[in-house]
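Entry 12.
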Amino acid sequence: MPLQMKLTAITLDCADPEALAAFYQQATGLGLHPASDRDFAGLTRGDGLFIGFQRVDDYRAPRWPGQSVPQQVHLDFEVDDLDEAELLLMELGATKPEHQPGADRWRVFTDPAGHPFCLTTRG
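Predicted 3D structure (tokens):
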């Protein structure tokens, strides 16, 4: 029988954990972990999922779609309306790279620290 593991946390490297946590908090509505500080910040969800943001000296942002600095990890989020979500994310500081391989199925963005993430619709 295979090992049964439950994902409990995802942690992203960045230069400014508090700023990146604020971006994802506004984008997702997740709660800020009370022990968050300038070196490590986190967001929590009711079912226990934790997204962490840790300070890394001399952080180098991923370069997507190129691989001069690999993306290392990316997150996928499901939304009801891609256009509406895109507008909100751009207001929050996300950027939308020119290269969009998902056509109408999904959209790629980068967060303020340069991590790529995707939006897709339910269904």
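Annotation: The helical segments are 17-28, 82-92. The mean pLDDT is 90.
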